[in-house]
Design brief:
Blueprint (H helix, E strand, L loop, with lengths): L10 E9 L3 H12 L5 E4 L11 E4 L9 E4 L4 E3 L13 H8 L4 E3 L5 E5 L2 E2 L4 H22 L7 H7 L9 H15 L8 H12 L6 E4 L7 H7 L12 E2 L4 E6 L4 E5 L4 E10 L3 H5 L4 E3 L4 H9 L1 E3 L1 E7 L11 E5 L9 E4 L11 E7 H9 L2 H15 L10 E3 L13 E3 L6 H8 L5 E3 L12 H20 L2 H5 L43
Helix pairs in contact: 1-13, 3-6, 4-6, 9-12
Bound molecules: flavin-adenine dinucleotide.
Keywords: Coiled coil, FAD, Flavoprotein, Oxidoreductase, Signal
Family: Belongs to the flavin monoamine oxidase family.
Cofactor: FAD
Length: 521
């Protein structure tokens, strides 16, 4: 590794460098603190704790004109659990949301009205068809997993289960978007089947199918700040929390890790480091690793998908939509996913009478929208709203705002999605440490990727591993073993991952008469 010795730059020494102050980083540091390891530093480029739990001020309140707080990033606690009479298993994010008293309300996905270019149009019966196919697809995915059969795409899984929306059937396309893309931020073609289904089921069937929407005016990140305050002073007064500090390089090895900070040349010399940067940050090579990440790690990073999920906020003088309905689904006649779902924050039990509406776009529509100026997007959205509500005079919004997640250096996207062709072993390569450099975050969670609970569990796991390594060998036999949900020490990885076809199987009987490597030029 790089030694800072003799240089004029400041190099702080610590036991553990926690890179990122999102849910994974805060949870990892908390685990260290709980195991009496107080010598750590937490670094983040943001000026707050919470990472992709990110809020912003928007619009104004009717009574005093002060702005509302809305969530640009994570918004729901997804899958609650812990209901009375049930086994008692609960989403840890739900436990923490209750602990910190976050204002939230049940998001009723059945409170929905449907529209197309001609105005209101009831096509919710299609949802029942998709429900039925999805139930069959779940059975099928379970069989593929249990019998080690070849995985496929969610698209193929849907088709086999009997759900085959026509390309021009824009109502069915809108229903499918609402069912799949709204959650995955990628279309079924690009989502893995088995892991797409397990990802959904482990959250919603293990706990409960409820999604609770957080509208707390401190911001959802009050959860992360509240947890951080239990082991950091304030938490913002604690000298171990280095905010507005950009990590530019990570030099790692068997002896330790040196983290380069910003352009100052300052650094951190640590025994261990935990990198919680999003898979988007890793894909964009925003951090220089020394030595470069090995091929088994880079292939996993490059294959896992970073999605983009963009909420476009509008405040109006008055609500022209049904005040009691939460969701408004729009089927555009030309483009799938074109301003497909509007959500009312004005609905009872949310930000009552705020007259705030937001529309969500994902995937290619999100990339398009994020690259254009606000005015262009506003004009497009207004055209859609006027088509949905032809009988209403709809004035321009009084406030309009949306983030640019796909290009934001803190994450380069919103959250991850399991792509077609990724195996559990290859995903494990995304998780695995290299020497003393560890990784954690929503994307490293095989079971809860994309969710806050994924970041929580992975942060906890890596925190415990490092606490164990720093605490000595007795940890490895005590608190964790292969049967628990918590691992110990260094992680497994697969240096070579094979396909299913041997070279000698590229032969005539498989329709491959010509050598793959022929070159007569
Ligand atoms: C729009 C959107 C909607 C979402 N909706 C939901 C939802 O409703 N429910 C749900 O459960 N989940 C949702 N998620 C996902 C959830 O927000 C994430 O799973 C979770 O917050 C990820 O936590 P993390 O700790 O893994 O990563 P992060 O929160 O990204 O933490 C990593 C930190 O690293 C920092 N960092 C990155 N690069 C550098 C660098 N070079 N130097 C220094 N610091 C750096 C970042 O600033 C960041 O704070 C949503 C996410 C987005 C963006």
């Amino acid at each position: 590794g790089n030694s800072a010795e003799g240089s004029t730059h400041k190099c702080r020494k610590t036991s553990v460098a926690v890179l990122g102050a999102g849910v994974a980083g805060i949870t990892a540091a908390q685990v260290l603190a709980n195991h009496s390891i107080s010598d750590f530093l937490i670094v983040d480029r943001n000026d707050y704790v919470g990472g992709r739990m990110r809020s912003a001020s928007f619009g104004s309140k009717p009574d005093d004109g002060t702005p509302y707080t809305v969530e640009l990033g994570a918004n729901w606690v997804q899958g609650l659990g812990g209901e009375e009479g049930k086994s008692g298993s609960e989403n840890p994010i739900w436990t923490l949301a209750k602990k910190h008293g976050l204002a939230n309300a049940y998001s009723n996905y059945s409170s929905i009205l449907t529209y197309d270019g001609g105005g209101a149009a009831d096509f919710l019966d299609l949802l029942d068809d998709l429900d039925e196919a999805y139930a069959a697809a779940e059975q099928d995915a379970g069989r593929l997993l249990a019998e080690n059969l070849q995985d496929t795409s969610m698209r193929a899984g849907f088709s086999t289960a009997g759900w085959k929306p026509g390309r021009a059937d824009m109502r069915a396309q809108a229903i499918e978007w609402w069912y799949w893309d709204f959650e995955a931020a990628w279309p079924p073609e690009q989502s893995g089947f088995v892991f797409g289904i397990t990802g959904y089921n482990l959250t919603y069937y293990q706990w409960s199918e409820a999604n609770n929407f957080v509208y707390d005016q401190r911001g959802f990140r009050a959860l992360a700040e509240g947890e951080a305050a239990e082991f950091l002073e304030g938490p913002y007064e604690d000298p171990r929390l280095l905010l507005e500090t950009v990590v530019t390089g990570v030099s790692y090895g068997a002896e330790g890790v040196v983290v380069s900070l910003g352009e100052s040349g300052d650094c951190i010399e640590a025994q261990f480091a935990i990198c919680t940067f999003s898979v988007g940050v890793l894909q964009n090579e925003a951090v220089a690793f020394d030595p470069p990440l090995p091929r088994w790690k880079r292939e996993a990073v490059d294959q896992f998908q970073m999605g983009t999920y963009t909420k476009i906020f509008m405040q109006f003088e008055e609500a022209f939509w049904d005040p009691d309905t939460q969701f408004f689904l729009y089927a555009d006649s030309r483009s799938r996913g074109y301003y497909p779902v509007f959500q009312s924050l004005s609905a009872p039990g949310f930000l009552d009478d705020s007259n705030i509406l937001f529309v969500t776009v994902v995937g290619t529509q999100a990339y398009r929208v994020e690259q254009q100026p606000d005015e262009v997007t506003q004009a497009e959205v207004m055209e859609v709203l006027r088509a949905m509500f032809p009988d209403k005079e709809i004035p321009e919004p009084t406030d309009f705002m949306y983030p640019r997640w796909s290009t934001d250096e803190m994450a380069y996207g919103s959250y991850s999605n399991w792509p077609v062709g990724m195996t559990l072993e290859k995903h494990q390569n995304l998780r695995a440490n290299i020497d003393r450099l560890y990784f954690a975050g929503e994307a490293t969670s095989a079971q809860y990727f994309g969710f806050l609970q994924g970041a929580f569990y992975e942060g906890r796991d890596v925190g415990l591993r490092i606490a164990g390594l720093l605490g000595g060998s007795k940890w490895e036999t005590g608190e964790c073993n292969a049967k628990t949900t918590i691992g110990c020490g260094s992680m497994d990885y697969y240096s070579t991952l094979h396909g299913t076809t041997r070279l000698d199987e590229y032969n005539v009987s498989n329709g491959w008469p010509t050598s793959s490597f022929v070159d007569n030029v």
